[in-house]
Amino acid sequence: MNHHHSIRKVTRARVAAAVVAAILAVGMPTAAPAVAVGGAHRQAASPIHQVVLQGAVNARDLGGYGTYDGKRVRYGLVYRADALNKTTDADITTLSRLGLREVVDFRVPLELQYDGPDRLPAGLAPTARPVSDSGLYAQMLAAIGSKDPAKQDAMLGHGKAEALMRTVYQDFVSDPASRAQFGATLKDLAAGRGPLLFHCTSGKDRTGWESYVLLRALGVPDATAQQDYLASNGFRAAADAALRAGLKQSGMMQNPDLLIPLQEVRLDYLNAALAQLSSQYGDLYGYLTQGLGLSLGDLAALRSRLVS
Question: pTM for the full model?
């Protein structure tokens, strides 16, 4: 390799790393207010690009969001979704058009056991990277399965469901195994493994946290990344309401509204993870590098590949 060419390459890498470091050091700016469009929280300047599927309600392209330095996350390279175990033949055709090279499944074995594996285009096998839900799925199954209103109220009522959700989010940050799975997925994106899709069961908590962290690492303002996180409530509203109605009609739950704190995303939950991040790593940069094991080169590669 030409000596001057290698110097230019090193200089470009250093400049990219400096840009990443500067972006991550920026505070929390204001952003355009969220507006409700079709039940989903959206930002007028950064429309959320849904991937319309029959067997999944919360599938989206993470492209389109603006960054601090006037650039934009590219479309067609990274997707977030809920579980893909109910995809129809038409959905598989839709997914085929995305040109996915990797699908990362954050579900734990219990979820796979009850819901089934992903149905994906031919030649595409999911990458299993289970991230603990801190017993959330098991507790929800136990509460519903008891068919006992008093037991369900004792397990989920009086702020217990909300407290469980805060614990789930804190564990995303504190649990080394979870950090390893989140980090490996970001490293795949940095290495150019995209187009890549990652998902959990509802596509809102584990997927929501990974999406938030990725967008922030790319230089998307905090307020905008929060809007993407909160948008799950709009996309999931009808399906979640139908589940509650079905549980009441079948006699499984007298008060299915006990599930609402488990079905929703809330800034309170996101803030629980961010408080843990701040306590454990000081800031987002510390979490990305020390917690998730990303190098400055990885962070620079994420920016160069996913932002233009």
Answer: 0.88
